[in-house]
Sequence to fold (282 residues):
Amino acid sequence: MSPLTLPAPGKLNLFLHITGRREDGYHDLQTVFQFIDLCDEMTFTLTDQDGIQIQPEIPGVPLENNLIYKAAKLLEPSRKTPKGVLVKLDKKLPMGGGIGGGSSDAATTLLALNKLWQCEHNLEQLAALGKDLGADVPVFVLGHSAFAEGIGEKLTKVAPKTPYYLLLKPNCHVPTVQIFTDKHLTRDTPAIRISHALKLDGHNDCLEVVKRLYPEVDEAMTWLTQFGDAKLTGTGACLFLAFDKIDDAERVRASAPKKWQTWVCRGRNTSPTHDALDQWIA
Ligand SMILES: C[C@@](CO)(OP(=O)(O)O)[C@H](O)COP(=O)(O)OP(=O)(O)OC[C@H]1O[C@@H](n2ccc(N)nc2=O)[C@H](O)[C@@H]1O
Ligand SMILES: Nc1ncnc2c1ncn2[C@@H]1O[C@H](COP(=O)(O)OP(=O)(O)O)[C@@H](O)[C@H]1O
Fold:
């Protein structure tokens, strides 16, 4: 069987409203997830030797903690072949930036190995398997932009506009749990109806807490806001600003302070992983 190469896209939270807190500490939220065409690239090759290998190692992430490894382990019991797998990872998505690279790698692994190992799960089964790896895994598995509710698990397909985005990463890593446990986080944004999700100019309830804890995010937000309605994705640290024209996005990018990593990318309402998988011939 030929190797399978797939992109694993990042995502943006076009807004993120926190509408409540549950007894188990998890938060009720409402958000719109949209994919971007900035992607990790993953190549899956079946091996005669049993086992799951990942190359290169992600610095600071032991093999057993790598979400690719965890996703592969979840599928091992249902594989119809004794073969192992070698996963080559070309990491392009910044880690811990709120663009979901780890979750996307995990989802892409589930989709790829479901084919290569002939596990024969449908997308709903794969999404259910993946959700314990991270709240964002199901949306990547299902492969369509979505309005999410509950703790992020109730997904309804939506198709927001697909502008160009200038994506900016301040030089800090924001742990999701730190933001969700901060006493200053507001948790009382009134719930909206899905019919308002794409009309309303939503906000990100995590922003004020993230800016307070990470002055560099505050500084980057102040800089990007000069050019328009900049937003934080997820719990940060990445910020983004939408543009109709790629040239405008590139112009602002060229003027960004060099201490920050920046990208120009485009919103996508279907996952590039699914598009590539549909074209794959074994
Ligand atoms: C809130 C989002 C929006 O996209 O943030 P980002 O991670 O993308 O920044 C995600 O859903 C996060 O997904 P993920 O990072 O996979 O979170 P998980 O591993 O499921 O949870 C990490 C921690 O965040 C908190 N958490 C997460 C989701 C939620 N609805 N309520 C919470 O309180 C919990 O403390 C949990 O232990
Ligand atoms: N394959 C992977 N890619 C990225 N991060 C991973 C991976 N496996 C485990 N991780 C861990 O997950 C953390 C969150 O990663 P990521 O999904 O990129 O961030 P976020 O949820 O903020 O978008 C990383 O800091 C890293 O420790």
User: Anything to note?
Assistant: The first strand starts at residue 4 and ends at 21.
